[in-house]
Amino acid sequence: MTDQSLRPADVRAWSAVPRRKGGPDVEHVYPAPAPAIDTWAPALLDALEVCVGSSVSFASGPEAEPHVQGPWAFRFELASERGSLPPEWDGELTLRLGDGDAQLRREASAMRFCAAHDIGVPTVLALVDLGDRERAEPDLRATRALVTRVPDLVSLAEQIGWNPRHGEALLGGFARVHAALHDCDPSGLDSSVPVMSLHDELARIDQRRFASELAWLRDNAPPPAPNVLCHGNYQPFCLVGPGPARWDQFGGPGRGLITSNWCGALLAEREFDVSFTLVAFWIAPFFAPNRSERTATKLIRNTLSNRYRLSYAEAAHMDRGRVRFWQAFHALRGMARLADAYDYEGSPFAAPERGPLPDLIAPQLERLFKMQHRR
Would 24 be classed as within a structural domain? Predict the structure, then answer.
């Protein structure tokens, strides 16, 4: 990686990539806007009173935190009538709302597992019941809340964008965390974390729209490999870490990273997760808000993905043939999403919280699929 190939302006453009929205009108597969705060906040405070050990109120927030911790996420601070809070409850906290128990238990289980294996994750403080309160909008039911604590750190994407000379070290840390996650024995996970089934996932894609692509995937599927815990959405926007002023405290850039947004946690082979990250780098330019930023991001996407891939390979073994297969799978699944030809019912994949994908991605995913097909 050279300064010429990773220029500051180019990387800063990449760090702004996910703010773009747009695409087909298929809103029914995306999470609805979060329930109004006044419909669940009183129940949350009642539930947290038991956890904290005293009556509590909001010192700040709740304030919506879109696209960082997953859908229906908020940040807030508590105040206690006793004047002081237990240390773990003092300061900024994050909560995720859920309609039902399964999704939040999945996230909590994945984060607790990672914490037990020294993988940096938000601290799980409580998974609380909000009850079945009367609401004006019965379709927007917040019945559970997962409360976590995330250290006050800096987005990894932002760090790469503003520190391009350290981009190699930052991406190296990003890859090492991913490899360390996959190296953990997953036997300690409970059944709330779903298992990815290739057969079931291909059946969710409309055969009438993608017959040849589905046939190729079925004909070229590799033999089953051991499952590991996969993040399901691993990319620099899901990680935070200490900024440059604190790098020395943690051993340098790319150290002390925390991985958040575990909505898509599932059990699958490691190449499944690695391939998603590579596809995320590939399509990143097409979330850019204008042509110049899109061009700048295209210039460095191969540098970014290659640095990640090489750093991962230095930390753990991965099968390149399997990586190519799963890249084709992720490309096809993205194509099906764009074509409104993917059935989310019963899928272990959370409905995407970032809204519709940009139309520009469709031909790029098709191109990526063909690239893997021809190898």
Answer: no
